[in-house]
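#struct-pred

JT: dropping the chains for the assembly here, can someone run the whole complex?
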Amino acid sequence: MSGDYAALDFDVSVEREEFRLDVCDQARPGEVLGVLGPNGAGKTTLLRALAGLQPLRRGRIELDGMVLTDVAAGIQIPPERRELGVVFQNYRLFPHLSLLDNVGFGLRSRGISRSESRLEAANWLRRLDLAEYSERRPGRLSGGQAQRVALARALACRPRALLLDEPLAALDARTRLSVRAELVRQLRAFPAPALLITHDPLEAMVLTDRLLVLESGRVVQTGTPAEIARRPATNYIARLVGLNLYRGRLERGAVRLAGGGALVAAAGHELASGANCLVAVRPSAITLHTERPAASSARNLWSGTVRGLEPLLDRIRVEVAGEPGALVDITAAAAAELQLSDGTPVWLSAKATDIDAYPEP
Ligand SMILES: Nc1ncnc2c1ncn2[C@@H]1O[C@H](COP(=O)(O)OP(=O)(O)OP(=O)(O)O)[C@@H](O)[C@H]1O
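RK: done, full complex below.
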């Protein structure tokens, strides 16, 4: 518990034609819970359910000891009485109101006087560096300014929880950088639970304290951003954080991979022999050779064929088919020396200490 704020607890189930969402978790006061997932995973549906905008098939939502939704008990508090601050993807500012009145709107609708609402709204506009635009209407704002107004409007009501749906998605790359820095500051100062939806790995890493990964309406992994980046549970997350991920079974000290091949990992001690596991390998932990290395201290050595080369900022990513196939990062100098191209036969090597085998969550 932090100050006067308490957790947002939710156990929600939504059914809509082919789609089904089932999520149970809790955002603690002061915590930013990130919801990460591909398009169509159900992230917005979850936010709308919490906001009271999406009917549930089953479930219960409780904020600060107050039941907001309880399907079995027939409780459904309307959205405007949930004391939530919500920032939607497209901000949904009122086009006919000035910024001051946009930000003061929630306070007014809670019965606070016009003068007091305007004073408080002016405070928030100042905090978000928007004071000079107070009398403007939203139509004349840049994307970054509109985002900050939406955030000011959500925060001005002193919500008991904050819900943010892809708050930076509509911004260009440069604006995103400055608005992200502002958002980090505001979220750090926010004392109540916050839930932030994103499908951007960088946002997930810098803005959130804990992540809930949703795929096809199901929670596939939860943990801190660092834990998830280090030990992804699904191919979607592995791709997002840039790791090779394999499924397999530990047998006699090596992991036999489901897709063919085997890898020896040093950090498999938490696994029992015969256990199903996941194996993560950084693309930069694999070395490529055009000749079979005669003497290598690496415990893992296997052959493959180059299937593609992609220049990244400071290195070349090589896609190699084999057992197992892998993405391998090499320097431009190494690529030139090895003279790789599509179809080149190669040997891959990796040290056991660079390979992480862990239980499937
Ligand atoms: N109004 C609707 N009626 C019917 N199905 C819908 C509706 N809105 C969304 N869906 C479906 O529900 C599923 C979840 O959608 P949702 O918008 O929650 O996903 P999301 O994770 O937020 O995706 P995105 O990253 O694209 O915003 C998808 O299969 C989508 O096609």
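JT: nice. Residues 173-189 form the longest helix (17 residues). The CA atoms of residues 37 and 214 lie 5 Å apart.
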